[in-house]
Amino acid sequence: MDALKAEIASKRKAFDNAPQRPNKYMRRGDIEKMKEEEERKAREEAVKKAEDEAQKAALLKVRSTKPPSFQSVLQRY
Predict the structure, then answer these.
(1) Sign of the dihedral through C-alpha 25, 29, 30, 31
(2) How many domains would you assign to the chain?
(3) Any domain includes 76
(4) CA 36, CA 43: separation in Å to the nearest integer?
(5) Is residue 20 situated within a structural domain?
(6) What single DSSP character describes residue 27?
(7) pLDDT, tens digit, for every residue of 38-74?
(8) Per 3-state DSSP, what percentage of the chain is helix, strand, and coil (rounded to 5)?
(9) CA-CA distance, 25 to 52, in Å (whole number)?
(10) What is the pLDDT of residue 70?
(11) pLDDT of residue 22
(12) CA distance 38 to 36
């Protein structure tokens, strides 16, 4: 009996953590809208991530170019 109670509790916990749907049945159009919204969010996150990476790369490029030292200038002449 304890095993059954534990199984019910684990299922209930999994159900509580699941995303909530408005009702048991959904229209096809509503499902498509939800999918499009998820895809839009994924695209926005990908664009934001790419912009962040480009900005970090630009900062690293700027940081890596330092002015020549006095000794290296003297060696050239």
Answers:
(1) positive
(2) 1
(3) no
(4) 10
(5) no
(6) -
(7) 999 999 999 999 999 988 888 777 665 666 666 666 6
(8) 80, 0, 20
(9) 40
(10) 66
(11) 63
(12) 5
Q: Is 77 domain-assigned?
A: no
- The model's pTM: 0.45
The domain in which residue 41 lies consists of: 29-64
Cα–Cα dist 43/37, whole Å? 10
pLDDT of residue 47: 95
For 11-31, the pLDDT digits (tens) are 777 766 656 666 677 888 888
State both tokens at 16. 């509580």
Is residue 5, in this structure, part of any structural domain at all? Answer: no
**Distance (Å, rounded) from C-alpha 46 to C-alpha 21?**
26
Residue the block writes with tokens 């006095």: 70
Q: What is the dihedral of CA 49, 52, 57, 60, to 10 degrees?
A: -140
Cα angle 28-34-36, degrees, rounded to a multiple of 5: 100
Alpha-carbon distance of 56 to 54, in angstroms, equals: 5
